Amino acid sequence: MWRAQFSNGDILEEFDKKGQEIPFRKVLDRLDDLKNLSIVLGNRVYTVRMADGRFSTAIDGKEGHFFALDVDAADLKHIRPIYFVRETIDFNMQRGSSGSSRVNFVAVGFQANLNGCNVKRYLEIFPDMTFIIKDK
After folding, report:
1. Which residue of 13, 67, 92, 110 has the smallest Cβ count within 10 Å?
2. Which domain holds residue 38?
């Protein structure tokens, strides 16, 4: 589940108190105010800070270390969030139907301009809660 935190203290989660899904568009509509974007999986939270593109992890509310950037955060322009889920769906070609889907990973990170180039950095978070950092 994603969770967005805004600079005024507002928090928007993927599902409201009634269990209704909130479109991610609501986060994108408030990009100028977005402070952090997190993925919450059980007792673990994986966060990217929109101010500087740093990542943090937390387990049971205890924050882990931050992953530092290898560039000066002031050089990042037009930073935007990345969030997506990569799934695999099994298809049965003989019956012409699809089967169940399974999550390969959930991604959270940022996209920005750096020295005139588009850069992307995100965490791929796997079902076993391990993760890797990807650069594109």
Report:
1. 92
2. 2-135
